[in-house]
Amino acid sequence: xxxxxxxxxxxxxxxxxxxxxxxxxxxxxxxxxxxxxxxxxxxxxxxxxxxxxxxxxxxxxxxxxxxxxxxxxxxxxxxxxxxxxxxxxxxxxxxxxxxxxxxxxxxxxxxxxxxxxxxxxxxxxxxxxxxxxxxxxxxxxxxxxxxxxxxxxxxxxxxxxxxxxxxxxxxxxxxxxxxxxxxxxxxxxxxxxxxxxxxxxxxxxxxxxxxxxxxxxxxxxxxxxxxxxxxxxxxxxxxxxxxxxxxxxxxxxxxxxxxxxxxxxxxxxxxxxxxxxxxxxxxxxxxxxxxxxxxxxxxxxxxxxxxxxxxxxxxxxxxxxxxxxxxxxxxxxxxxxxxxxxxxxxxxxxxxxxxxxxxxxxxxxxxxxxxxxxxxxxxx
Amino acid sequence: xxxxxxxxxxxxxxxxxxxxxxxxxxxxxxxxxxxxxxxxxxxxxxxxxxxxxxxxxxxxxxxxxxxxxxxxxxxxxxxxxxxxxxxxxxxxxxxxxxxxxxxxxxxxxxxxxxxxxxxxxxxxxxxxxxxxxxxxxxxxxxxxxxxxxxxxxxxxxxxxxxxxxxxxxxxxxxxxxxxxxxxxxxxxxxxxxxxxxxxxxxxxxxxxxxxxxxxxxxxxxxxxxxxxxxxxxxxxxxxxxxxxxxxxxxxxxxxxxxxxxxxxxxxxxxxxxxxxxxxxxxxxxxxxxxxxxxxxxxxxxxxxxxxxxxxxxxxxxxxxxxx
Amino acid sequence: xxxxxxxxxxxxxxxxxxxxxxxxxxxxxxxxxxxxxxxxxxxxxxxxxxxxxxxxxxxxxxxxxxxxxxxxxxxxxxxxxxxxxxxxxxxxxxxxxxxxxxxxxxxxxxxxxxxxxxxxxxxxxxxxxxxxxxxxxxxxxxxxxxxxxxxxxxxxxxxxxxxxxxxxxxxxxxxxxxxxxxxxxxxxxxxxxxxxxxxxxxxxxxxxxxxxxxxxxxxxxxxxxxxxxxxxxxxxxxxxxxxxxxxxxxxxxxxxxxxxxxxxxxxxxxxxxxxxxxxxxxxxxxxxxxxxxxxxxxxxxxxxxxxxxxxxxxxxxxxxxxxxxxxxxxxxxxxxxxxxxxxxxxxxxxxxxxxxxxxxxxxxxxxxxxxxxxxxxxxxxxxxxxxxxxxxxxxxxxxxxxxxxxxxxxxxxxxxxxxxxxxxxxxxxxxxxxxxxxxxxxxxxxxxxxxxxxxxxxxxxxxxxxxxxxxxxxxxxxxxxxxxxxxxxxxxxxxxxxxxxxxxxxxxxx
Lengths: 380, 323, 510
Hints:
The structure holds three protein chains of three kinds. Chain A is an all-alpha fold. Chain A has helices at about 10-35, 40-50, 55-80, 90-105, 110-140, 145-170, 190-195, 210-225, 230-240, 240-245, 250-280, 290-300, 305-325, 335-350, 355-365. Chain A is globular and about 70 Å long. Chain B has a two-stranded antiparallel sheet. Chain B starts with a helix and ends in a 21-residue tail after the last helix. At the A-B interface, helix 5, helix 6, helix 12 and helix 14 of A face helix 3, helix 4, helix 11 and helix 13 of B.
């Protein structure tokens, strides 16, 4: 309470400050580009063109964004309950097993639209299950959920390699993955939607119906958090555990349910990877999307709309980054990992770094806009 | 090969494998004992591994490599300090950010500077920290039992291995026998007590994260300049997280940390040696289970089923002077 | 020749809009024990924190031993010979006594010589002042009385000539407190100057040479202890405020609604905060609990409302028991007609980050009126919120506004509207007008009286004696966890003030 944050107008709080943080992250990333001897402005142009220039690029951008929407929502739901779920990566990976088992069982007998709902259930179930133990240990035994979810990411990696190599891999195959899934487990592509806007024929982009599932989930998360009783309880708990206690909200219940939902959402990312793209369950199928979810949720301020926008931004970085590495051999797609780190740093850990300056600025331009309403009468 | 030789060799690789864990674990100990959680050990180690190998190959000197490793790792540690001490940001978020920044930039810079697919050039012998033969090691080699233990197990390691194991008593001494250590432990437990005693909480914590930076640098340098002859992308492969697990497992104590790291190193060595071959009594154990065991054990410990790991009380909480 | 150890001249300090210290002047004679008394929030602790360098005064001058002193940090204070024993001990719990004592005062980079020095110094202090404590004991294994002794030793080890003690007896048993006083007297005899901050007048009379009274951030009087009385101090402390009389008729007390029997509650440290408390609250009456903050009122409220577990005793609501052992579910108690306006509206009664309408259902979010299946009935909630805003004149009249942006008075109205409009049989209220502007105070008071007149049972806890006196039909005074007396609303301020200060009453007065 020693330095109460003066109020800023909402547009500055939700628009200006995140944009400044993002801009700083990109400026620092630009410095890295300079360091490897390339022109950051040209890099930015290639990036954007690569992502939006052709229908193919757009499709890939949205394909990647699909992954990040799922994992971003996952992190956001936990965040609303005041929990930091670093385990999205592991939850998505293990959920791949749930999806895989459903697909392996059904892909030869039923069409995709029958497999799809079962796969969603499988993903949600396995993802939630992988989140359950850390949630339970936090709620009941007080183990720090951050540490346990990190541990569970590592355990998931070992478990999945074991399952894939020793159990699911067909004898004859070299690569560690399941057999190729057939038509009944392949999700239809949505590239035609982009073609409707007059782009050239899209040959091979894996943009598929999981994107629609992601949008539905974003809507459901919005509904859950802001329109249901459970969401109300989750937010109360996340803002103030004391108020939750006062309101008769069970700490154990909220912690566990929020984490189950979070794990289920992270798990659905594997549908996009398995049924939408690779048509098999393979090693490291989450591919870091679980971690990008953290950046996306922080940037999107844990709101589904913000998450969708942030996911598309990261989709652009992924797709554009791939193009970039053709044009500028010095820059590989790993550039995104740096940007991701910088976004997490500036939009997350250093979230308030620029705030005092912005406040001073606002106060000098228009003192009224930073009214001290809340401070009045808050005496000891 | 006799059973005894197998044991010696397994223990020897246990030592080699536990060294980076031990250095990173002790690194984390300084930071966390001061109340700053650090999940960014992995990133700092990786960046140091790259900086060390890169500088060593460019300047043809292992020592310059080590110096550069320290410079880079300490800089990252200071970023973590800036976010979590000065700006009271979320320590987990900050640590995570550093891991990603390190993972990405080592590859990008490596590719840009050396064009070897993210590798640094293979280091020449003088660019690495080479094995040191302890006095008399050759002479006693033929003595049964003691000979192999001395000449195989204890002798023939790199300087950094000895540094790692000497860092254990040294850390203990710093922590429990020096003024700095007393204050460091105090600030992680009750920063208000430190503040009212007229000591700067921030400066103390900054010094702690600098210590963390130096030790993760040595851990990274060991990976790229001792264990392998150059940097390979993502070469830490989760070792920073195992070190974190070991730190919890050791209940934030230096000597325990050594045993935890040796245990985790031993599990790793065993997994490599067995390669899925059956163990006596237990039967066949999947390699992956052995690899996951450190994490599983840590989770069980955290759940309070084997003892209780109580972290420093002020850990993870930014210090705000109360009214 | 009496010489001033400390002179404070024109000290001012504000926190935001709150003026914690206004133009304070104070002179403390060397080698004496000087008491500073005042109610909670009178500004005592702030003043002492300024003296100890924890805060900076906005203006004013500090002189130590006649010389102007610049005290910017605790270090400066220590260097000028000022030591402080904080209300919440500044000790590292898992360190030994020795380690705590040398922390920050180590003689060199290695501990060995410091520890040896501290050990012999401790022996000397033990001899001179009777401050014995095992130097190798771990702090958390020591009883609070000894922990406090370590705090005193810490200050003496640093060469403190002036020792400030902030509410030192709050956590002590009477025997421990007596021992502390003996030590303080001994320190005085050795020439140390002692500043004792307390709200307990008995202690002031027993041990100090002179006493200053603070009220609402100002220094209202300084007296020689010998020449003053408890009555005078009590009056100076609470002041002769204009009593806000609320129009109210005779209470028509009906059947017992809430009954508390032999209740014992401990806080998280295991200290008994509520000690064998029993009372009834009947329909149609307001029972007020007076007392200085920290005497167990908060824990009492929390136990009754199901937020905190009780150790033993029983509470019945409408004749049916409340489960105290498993911390009864506050939601269930609400359904049974127990509404609770908590003391801490910022962290407990409200979620400040919520919109106003969201807070207007906190705790009642399970109510069918606000739900459509699993979904919140946003229209119903909004209509309900608007209704309450109109009825309670909550401003600004915007149910979508973030709760943090309402003033204290309006925030409190949000809580009151929510709890009262549920038409509960029993209302328990903690500090209903803390940090609330004058206009809202009157409104809130009228509401509480109206509740009573509708035949509800109201239990009111407040540190504002005015409020207790003007609202209550019966007044219970709590001191050190116990109910030390019951009075009617006609009881004088002085009488209640004495009870609140823990001064034992002649049994004849009963």
